[in-house]
Design brief:
single chain, alpha/beta, 8-stranded mixed beta sheet, disordered N terminus, binds guanosine-5'-diphosphate, binds magnesium ion
Length: about 325
Amino acid sequence: MALFKKKKREAKGTGNIPDRYEKGLSRSRNRFREGLLSLFGRGKKIDEAFLENIEAFLYESDLGADVTEKILERIEAESRKKELLNETDIKQLMTEIFEDLFRDDDTRIPVDRHQPCVVLVVGVNGSGKTTTIGKLAARYSREGKKVLIVAGDTYRAAAIEQLDVWARRAGVDIIKNLDAKNPSGVVYDGIQAGVSRKADMILVDTAGRLHNKAHLMQELDKIKRVIQKLIPDAPHETLLVLDGSVGQNSLVQAQEFTRVTPVTGLIVTKLDGTAKGGSMVAIHEKLHIPVKFIGLGESLDDLLPFSPSMYVQAMFEGFQ
Ligand SMILES: Nc1nc2c(ncn2[C@@H]2O[C@H](COP(=O)(O)OP(=O)(O)O)[C@@H](O)[C@H]2O)c(=O)[nH]1
Ligand SMILES: [Mg+2]
């Protein structure tokens, strides 16, 4: 029975990715597409009024001012070359711009370059860190990597138990200490265990208490120092988990975190539950940090590698 379940899970995990992008982003897409469609009539001329309407639409789409400006400039430049622009032309232009924005991103986690590859996972409470760690553990374990999870959020016993459940679901080991008062000890034990067990990847959960920046900085510094006692060039990746449904607020969070610690990748969660998928573009544009994965649901398989072209396609029209 257990084996059967695992097989089924694997089948789902390697399932049709375009399909899952399409389903997961359907709320954002509907909003985006309806907004765009409402601007276009057949053979509508690109005039001042049209440009103003599209400007207003873009601002409301949470893409952020910089990206909105880029799109508007392109539309204006193109409309000077050609008298008429239809919906397809605009979509094509926006697709090119979106793809350009994300083009140079390195979306891999360097698990093949370090052994163990230490991944520090940071972000405010509720953004989805623990869930994402479970999903990452399942993904890499399925790829044949030996994954170890470290329960570095020691502030609430419930947080450790929740991570424990995810470790079991993913079928990986966890290092935890229910009596720990701060993360240093358990992180040290976790890294040591990872080295001696020859883990390929160590995922370190952290507490995300942003209300006190000095404290957060101290705590992350301490965790890093502890890791570096055992592996001087670690962490090899610091992933910031952002709740994609909180719009502009997640940009503020991201700016705060990057001031506290260098962030090498973003994971944007809860894109399934929001119509605000566009805010991800604004965050990326402001911070120039690659988006590595997106979260499209609450189960083990609902974490997908970020693909700009699939994101764009899913936002504009789906895959039909
Ligand atoms: N719909 C949806 N819910 C998510 C996603 N990722 C996390 N969540 C939910 O968000 C809530 C907070 O997640 P948790 O991992 O505990 O956040 P943490 O405090 O940062 O560790 C939980 O109820 C998760 O099930 C996602 O991609 N989609
Ligand atoms: Mg947590």
